[in-house]
Amino acid sequence: QVQLVESGGGLVQPGGSLRLSCAASGFMGGHYVIGWFRQAPGKEREGVSCISSSDDSTYNADSVKGRFTISRDNAAKNTVYLQMNSLKPEDTAVYFCAAAHFLDPVHLEPLDTPKLWQYDYWGQGTQVTVSS
User: Fold this and answer.
1) Model confidence pLDDT, tens digit, residues 51-100
2) Contacts for 89 with CB less than 8 Å, ≥ 6 apart
3) Which letter does DSSP use for residue 29 in this model?
4) pLDDT in tens, 22-59
5) In angstroms, what CA-CA distances link 64 with 16, 94, 130?
6) Which residues are CB-neighbours of 53 under 8 A, at least 6 positions away?
7) By the 8 A CB rule, do 76 and 23 touch?
8) Cα 50 from chain centroid?
9) Which of 12, 39, 64, 96 could form a disulfide with 16 if both were Cys (CB 3.0 to 4.6 A apart)?
10) How far apart are CA 97 and CA 35, in angstroms?
11) For residue 95, how far is the Cα from the chain centroid?
12) Cα distance between residue 99 and residue 122, in whole Å
């Protein structure tokens, strides 16, 4: 059973930085895309960034491009990070990591990323609050 555990959330001032971690376990083979999503009160869940286990290709939503960076642990490959810089109040949300499983290799392109429904496994979420 795949398990995902997020950590690293907290309170930060506008312009500050945070690094979220997603510790993954239970993968049984094949290829995975690990995605970061966020959901603010009263809003729909929004995809932020994702990374492919096949080739480490990445995708970032326009709302975070140039500010957020997704990466995988080079040694263990079972931890995915979301480095968030230049944080804004509108980045305030609960952040979730999720995993989508594929039989074939996945190369991420801007117009070819997994849909929300393709993510089978979800973490419990971590709160990020950007406020002065």
Assistant:
1) 999 999 999 999 999 999 999 986 766 899 999 999 999 999 999 999 99
2) 14, 130, 131
3) S
4) 999 998 888 999 999 999 999 999 999 999 999 999 99
5) 14, 15, 14
6) 31, 32, 33, 34, 72, 77, 106
7) no
8) 6
9) 12
10) 6
11) 8
12) 7
